[in-house]
Fold each of these.
Amino acid sequence: MRPMAFSAPPTPKGARQAQEILDAALRCLGRDGFSATSLSRVADEAGVSKRMVLYYFDSREALFDQLAESIGERLITALDDAIDGLEDPAEAVTAGFSEMWTAITADRALLVALFGVTTEAVTDARLDRTVSNFKDRFRDLLRKQLDLARANGRRITVDDDIAVTAVLAGFLGLALEWLERGDTPELEKTIGAFQAMLTSLAPPA
Amino acid sequence: MRPMAFSAPPTPKGARQAQEILDAALRCLGRDGFSATSLSRVADEAGVSKRMVLYYFDSREALFDQLAESIGERLITALDDAIDGLEDPAEAVTAGFSEMWTAITADRALLVALFGVTTEAVTDARLDRTVSNFKDRFRDLLRKQLDLARANGRRITVDDDIAVTAVLAGFLGLALEWLERGDTPELEKTIGAFQAMLTSLAPPA
Amino acid sequence: MRPMAFSAPPTPKGARQAQEILDAALRCLGRDGFSATSLSRVADEAGVSKRMVLYYFDSREALFDQLAESIGERLITALDDAIDGLEDPAEAVTAGFSEMWTAITADRALLVALFGVTTEAVTDARLDRTVSNFKDRFRDLLRKQLDLARANGRRITVDDDIAVTAVLAGFLGLALEWLERGDTPELEKTIGAFQAMLTSLAPPA
Amino acid sequence: MRPMAFSAPPTPKGARQAQEILDAALRCLGRDGFSATSLSRVADEAGVSKRMVLYYFDSREALFDQLAESIGERLITALDDAIDGLEDPAEAVTAGFSEMWTAITADRALLVALFGVTTEAVTDARLDRTVSNFKDRFRDLLRKQLDLARANGRRITVDDDIAVTAVLAGFLGLALEWLERGDTPELEKTIGAFQAMLTSLAPPA
DNA sequence: CATGAATGAGCGTTCATTCAT
DNA sequence: TATGAATGAACGCTCATTCAT
């Protein structure tokens, strides 16, 4: 009797509406923050009744879980696209980071929402699973990048685990900085340095 | 008419009680997460009536603001102590990071609370000021470390802004990883690498 | 387009299912009371989907209306049988009441449902018509009993209207008592007295 | 933390408001019937927010329970007054019934509400206790009337239990008739006969 | 200094019903 | 004939906050 939420939209109309609600939730999260994003607000933003939000997503928690998944999907896709778009695979490491950074900072609301959900995930098992899944996919993506670089004659001078963890942590930390302070010169310079460091870890053979 | 919250406790008893409430709030935040930490729960944890929480701290927001300040204070103090405790100032960079990491991961609840508040701060002006203030102090502390290293004959090969931003972002990113996955081997290795990189940026003259 | 509910069941299967739903509703009403008897509960009890209940009976109100009619039918039939079964018509008054009481208290759920519907009928025009109709038939039945008694040489010493109204009110009042307190000695004695009084009102010529 | 509902009004204002809500509920019950009397409707009728209804009365059920108690109180008081007002105690039986009937039919809403609650009580333990309590007090009152009649030289020719049960059942049955059909001639005549019968059961010595 | 009363906002559930196929 | 999807209404619970003392 439940509409299976987002994963299996029962009817075109339902799917459209569920998607609209997710979009609205993302806008709210980006604009108002996690705790200020109430069901009513999302409903108003989406132009549906509050009841409908709970019809498509069983609870506030479930809505955010779906949203986290959706955000993760979008980010991973954006990152994938950014990497795939690289003409010269040899640049994978050099250009990769910059493209990924651009992809990640393209939508502020997305990031705010991601961090809201991430923080909440620390004490919420359900969100944690979703966020973990996203991060795992991120790690996989990074690992593939490393393999690609190697295939292109690069020699990775550090352990893959370290590289992956460092890049992920670096991304998160820098993104958090970006969220709070915006595009400051320091941040820009630091990103450049980070990128340079990464490149130095994967020199051409 | 208002008791000025924590900054100016009217009586010893009041001050004690206010502190107890702050402690309780920290425990709740660490255990239950930001949004699940309601005034009632804090009150129960502190063993006072819900109304009392609002008596000492004018609102939920104010409570968390106070808490953020208190957390920041503790962390900064811990970091300061960690650094001051270094016997050989020449090790400031090498050992500094490791001490600071230990200080930061000493109390998980503190970190959970810090991130909860940080995330919320993205869309909350008041919290933002407090969190910004904490980060500024963190940056100052890092800057002093750099100066200290220079005074001890080290040559810092990167721009101070970059170093400070990178270390802060690195700390945040790694801490977020630690919160979610705990003391994994990857994380440990990455921390080691991070530390090594920092050291390489500040070689002895 | 509508299946005319119970009165004109389209197919044997439909008729059977509609009857099952009515039976289930009666059980629910007897067990859970009027306001706790929801369509879902009836559906569960009948082993059909909630939607089906509304398919056979256009609304909750219509279902209860049908049920009231069905209950009325059953009770009237039971009363008729009870009276018809009297061997000596001269006992019509004496034994009649006792037989009718037995018929009425044979199925508690039936009575609970009847009173539920009756009370609701006070403010519901549709149910009121159905309940009124039932009471009218009850009154007719009582009137016939009086005629029968007269035909058997009894002399009715009170106005028929009074007799009918009194017996009906007596039945209702006693039934309400029975529902709430069960077969208490007081109730039994009172029924005996009521019966004796009725007999005294219709002495043999 | 709960306001103890009606039994112990915390403040004058609260008591007034709680009373207003009870009055509103009575009006709704009398006008719309039991199942159509929602919290919102009561709140609107009382001119308070729905939340307030649940603040003073913990639930819809509790509200009706309180209301039942209040109705019982009023009716018992009205009956008491009716009896106390009798100048010649010797008339207790004769005039008593008529006065009580007048008292009971003075407020239709009261009766509708009483029956709504009574019917619901059949399957609701909480309401049942309240309704039972009311009926017990009614029985006590009737018993006292019998004693009074005896004290005034009447000789009661039937068992007290029977008299009490019969009068109660008679009242209920006739009241139900009155609710459904109003002041019909039959009803009036029947009441007269009922009264006459009662008087015959308690002849002067 | 401390507290209980009062109240608006939010969440999530069940219910009855209509829509669309 | 039968059914799932969609939806407004009601209920009742928690939360944060203000009022009044």
Note: Residues 3, 10-11, 13-14, 49, 51-52, 55 of chain B lie near DNA strand E (CB under 10 Å from a C1').
Amino acid sequence: MKLKVFLLDADYITEKEEAIIRLWGKTDTGQNVVVFMRDDPYFYVLPQDPQRAKEEILAQIKKKKLPIKDIFLEKRVLDGESKTFLKIVCFLPQDPSKIRNAIKVFEAKRGGSGSIIEEYEYTLNFYRRFLIDHHIDGNCFLEIEGEKIETKYDVDIALKGRKINPLEDYHLPPLKVVAFDLETHERAGKKEIVMASFYTQDKQIVITNQRTAHYPNWVKVVETEKELLEGIIKTIKELNPDIIVTFYGDMFDFQILNERCKANKVKLILSRDKKQAKFARRARISSARLNGIVHLDIFHFISNILAPNLQTEVLSLDAVSAELLGDKKIEVDYQEMLEAWRKGKNLAKLAEYCLKDSLLTYRLAKMLLPQMFEIARTVGQVIFDTSRMTYGQLVEWYLSRHAHEKGAIIPNQPKYEDILKRRQATYVGGFVKEPASGLHENIAVLDFRSLYPSLIVSFNISPETLNCKCCKDNGYRVPEMEYWFCARKKGFIPELLKELIEKRAGIKKRLKEVPKDSLEFHVLNNRQYALKIIANATYGYFGFPGSKWYCKECAESCTAFGRFWIKKAIEEAEKAGFTVIYADTDSLFLKGKDGNIEKETKDFLTHINQAFPGMLELDLQGFYLRGIFIPRGAAPGTAKKRYALLSKQGELLIRGLETVRRDWCRLAKEVQRTVLEYVLKNLDIEGAKEYVKKVIEKIRAGQVPVRDLILYEELTRPLETYKQMGPHVMAAKKLKASGKEVGEGMLVMFVITKGKGTISQKATPIELVNSIEEIDTHYYTYHQILPAAMRVLQVLGVRKEQLLP
DNA sequence: CCGCTACGGGG
DNA sequence: GGGTACGTAGCGG
């Protein structure tokens, strides 16, 4: 039969010594499908002498009983040159890496003088390789030919696939998305699950084993944790989601669920193949994968991909929702929550709180899923993987896919020693014009459109075009450097990037023609965004120490060309009568003469863009009423942009100011924000000074509630294992000494109190603070309030002393 | 100043 | 079925 299926996820199993790909999918009519495909893993060997190497390996197969299915010669491109490789076809997914090791061993015995130079692509994951080989663009529609088979899996159709044909159809089928959230409570050092919520289009469920008479009717109450766990599993089964979304579920919700199921001897069966879920706890990046159901932990996508474009510095569900959705979590402070679980107080509110977390996660997912799917399709891998990738990994898989399609070998990952060496290598970054200190009015912000991608394409920056033999005198010379790039033959990366940029330009053109509220508009818009992400990350990937296409000279050349052109732009802006108040890498902040800044800027742009070569172009980012810039501190080259701008709508755009971190007390954060408002909205520096003075007076007079001074830090491991006595560790020790229970994972709430010694020595858990008199007013004045306020005020010529009462 | 350690998200 | 997170801030020496 033939079936049109949207690919949700892919993985593999081994059965009877054979590797089998599983494609999990969904039809447009809502049926869940699994397709089994036979395929053989393989890898490449680069030989000195192909025939001799082949014979040697064949001899080894006999001698060592290496499980090799087939060997043949194949031409592929390495470093821009076509070479003959041995393609080693294996049986099982883990074999390429094992056999490669065996080959390394027998090569080493010959003292490295044997016939094999290097092995390639032996670490490519089997199903990811399958997607590349079959030109499957991640989560896309496929036409599958095959036979229906019987299965015990929890699916509507199981097929033994014969042929796959990827379709150019970019809509999404109807997908059931369920958001999921857990609440836990620590008893005797063990986290237990006390509540769970589910949110989907037409159903909201909360299950808990905490009894109260006041629950709304959508709360289901059970007796024990075990029943709660069984309820969670049953609910997921009944909701039958295609996608489960969590916020931090990889590291929290699913980990805890797994642990508690083990402790309660409940089988955690959620997957469509009815296998018990297995999660690695040890490794740093462990992801909870449910076979046949896509678990998306949107925290990864937010922190890896969105974070640089977000205002917020903290990536909590609360802060992210506030920014993206304009909605917040229900406010429950930590003490209140502990009381709820301990004493059964306010449980109805906790149920609302738990459900709201799922609701926010659901709404974020609804907003981000189309983008995430487009990234998966652009990169050509499944969303389970791509949603967890960093920019570098997205670029790497994008390049890998296209390298293979262009007949090239995918370079190996660097060895650990090489990574260490590469980390030492430094090079000059973008050009920064330090901001003129003080407040600025009427600011225009300009930036180069995709500066580094444009430079890579325009000057053919690629590992194989670097210092070519053919263009020593007439290649693209890099400013300030001794390098050049080939002007005759297009490099692999510039060529790909050019295709990508042209594709994006095509989409953007089409976007202007389709109605803004149409489905096509949204699909295309997400697609252009995905392409932009890949394009912009390519420069960073050149310089990333773990990169398979690492090229320090390429990265260095990008910044060198970049510096050259932004200096040119600054020069031209000044010639045109602007004052350049600040410039960083690819952006310019301009102050006009006295006239109409908007018109002046637009005229300037028209003029300068005619003068720029190739793809280089300056764009208008926006106009602002007022702004304050905080110059780079002690760490040159690495400091982020720190500034705050006031838009015409009266909104504060704050960048790089770390007011909202956990190691700052609530009061310090409030002070910084208020100071910014005084300065930018009211131009009232005196007012800001007075305000800070008053706050300090209040601290000294003991009029600030202790809760505004609390610092929060978590004990991430058992107390005894700490060598480094941070403040929270010391506070926890004091708590323990007072007879209180202190466990791993506990959030230590402490304040800094009067006394002798380091800050750590003066950290006291709030449980042991009886009076506001004990607070170290000196610490809060000089290490919290003043630095937070001075971050902003020092550039306005205010000195610390002026803030002291 | 340098090297070591812990942080993040979740509750 | 396998995994080298990472970039940085703050403390102590």
Note: Confidence is low (pLDDT under 50) at residues 633-639 of chain A.
